[in-house]
Amino acid sequence: MNGKVSNKVLLKWFIKEEYRVFETLFGGKRLLMFPVTLFVLSILLGASIPAFGLSAELSAAVMMVLVGLFGLQTGSIGFEARDTLDNLMGDSERILFSSRTLPISQKRLAGLFLLKDAIVYSTFMILPIYIGVIVGLAASPFATSVTAIGLSGFGLSYLLVILSFLFGVSAGFVMTTVTYKSLKGLASMFVMLAVIAPIAYMGYSSPSVFIDSGSLTIGLLMIIGTVTFTLIGLWQFNITNSKNKKSSHSNILGYLSNNITVSARAQIMIKTMLDVVRSPGGLWKIIFSTGVISMTIVFLVQIVKQVMVTGISPSFLYASLFSLAVFPIYTLVYRYDSNTYYSSYPITERDVKFAKSATYVVLSLLVVGSYYTVATVTYGIDVFSYVTGLFVLVSLIVYQLGVFLLVAKDEPLKFLFNGMMFSGYSASLLLVMIPLTMVGLYGAAIPAVITRIALAVCGFCFVAGGLLSGFAVRSEG
Amino acid sequence: MEFPVDAENLSKTYPDGTEALEDLTLKIGEGEFYGFMGRNGAGKTTLINILTGQIKPDSGSLTVQGIDPVENPAEVRSKIGILPEKESPMSFLTPREHFEFVGNAHQIDQDDLQERIDFWSEKLELENKMDQKNKSLSRGQQQKVMFASTFLHKPNLVFIDEPLANLDPPIQRKLKDYLMEYNDKGNTIVLSTHYVEASLELCSKILIIEKGTAIDEKDTNNIGSAKEIEQMLE
Lengths: 477, 234
Fold this sequence. Notes:
The complex is a heterodimer of chains A (477) and B (234).
Chain A: H1 7-26, H2 30-48, H3 56-80, H4 82-89, H5 106-139, H6 145-156, H7 158-177, H8 183-205, H9 215-236, H10 252-259, H11 264-278, H12 284-307, H13 314-322, H14 327-333, H15 349-379, H16 383-408, H17 419-442, H18 448-474
Chain B: E1 5-13, E2 19-28, E3 33-37, H1 44-51, E4 59-64, H2 73-78, E5 80-83, H3 95-105, H4 110-123, H5 139-151, E6 157-161, H6 169-184, E7 188-193, H7 196-202, E8 205-210, E9 213-219, H8 226-233
Parallel strand pairs in B: 3-7, 3-8, 5-6, 6-7
Antiparallel strand pairs in B: 1-2, 1-4, 8-9
């Protein structure tokens, strides 16, 4: 009974647990369909790339950024979001948190957890996506000379895709473990910036770096970044069991709820805001999660701007893409309770839905609206364009609320794992996102009448979203 | 003489300003069945969490089985058993897998482990639940799995926080008998509970804790009735 349990044995248990989590989410045989579905969708994506006239360099850069973003989410969710998992599947205990009662150190479990993520996601997600895109490119009916370059480019960049994912995972891990208030947290932040800066600069100044001779340099930088982030994360890693954590907040929201008599709906809004503020990560997790999406969008728009000869329409492009950042906010307002939580109180389900929806709209406008404002003002657009874009953004926030309420209801994470519901959500979103993004991408080349039609579509979205939301809020059960 | 649990002047204040422990000193001798008694929020769970290396005290010194849990939490946990008040078994593993995982963590020989798993599944009437996910078990069944995990590696010292919660009376009786038998073999048991009758029935000594401070240590043989303790807690 002496000695330590081996890393191999622990890794086996982590992988087994991960399999069970996915099995629970997808259910039995459907789990096996997951990589197959990703593969098929990636073939379609690969086949359609030449149709958009995107260069191989730009395609590779976009893919790297998206895979890195996926890694970032993967890396942060296991550590930051015990609440997320509880919301998704009820109260849950994971091996990652077992060090409290067993003779295994927290840091060792955290390191192995990251390794498990790297193995599982690289094999069952990244690989089918990568091969799918390659097959799609090869079989594309829109094949041009770009395809040939793309094929060889993607072949060379396979390793970079994996590295980009691992870099994202380690960045997600470090961002959820570092406490910025301490001196060592600040020191960590400087090291992190020093690691990110050259990678971001290389990627931004020359997107072709991902598939040309510079790929070796950026690959090496990503390896250094991954190792550095992992080491800093493990150094500062300290699991706080959110279930036992005591709140240290006394804030204006608490004051309001204690001192002002308000309606049930306002009380639920205040309670929802308190839940968000008092949960691990507080308000920062909204700013962080939407910020990551927003920064990625800004990065992509900067790359796109360089290759679109016709000139883009930044207000349309930013507004439509930034609206995608509202999903984490919707998940957050339902993360800590559901509609039925209030059934033992004299509060109707309609009140709960209304209050949650209002909280979502307020938070979305404040957070995403701020990012939109910063991005467009920095870009240097005129007031008219800014207001036009703001109208597009507000319309899409309201439209998505209607779709969320109808499709996702009070289980915004669970619906992601329901094929039918997720397809419905995606189709509703793509229906308006594709034309609006096209208007944004082709900017000046789009005739004025088309732009007006796009604005009319936004008006329709606003009304439709409002009607859908009203209908969903009124319906019981 | 070395005490399995030896703590001096332990203090702990949470970030919100709650003083959970204040200058608490404690010595638990080998083979004792020692109880922590106190009202809700008295500091019992905080004390157990500190003694088992789950959280760090702000000040004070302590050794558990001769090891400092602040410096070497994993090493301490290899020599003790812990049954936390709020912990559940791994949600996505089955009870059998949970036991195997815990057995692996404690480096129990494979044949021994299977024997012990069979023993506990029979004792706690879990035979037909062994291959279901822990998530799908009732709260009481999950508590049984946690109880068995605590004793799986046969530690000489165990810390158990409200071990009988959510269990039906026949199982409670069975587990009380097991605890007394385990203690009779010379093992040390530290029990935290606010059930007066259970602690009087099981413990040889109890420590009354109030607002994070040790109020009194009593030999249970010198306590006339549960009412006496209840009055002290008021």
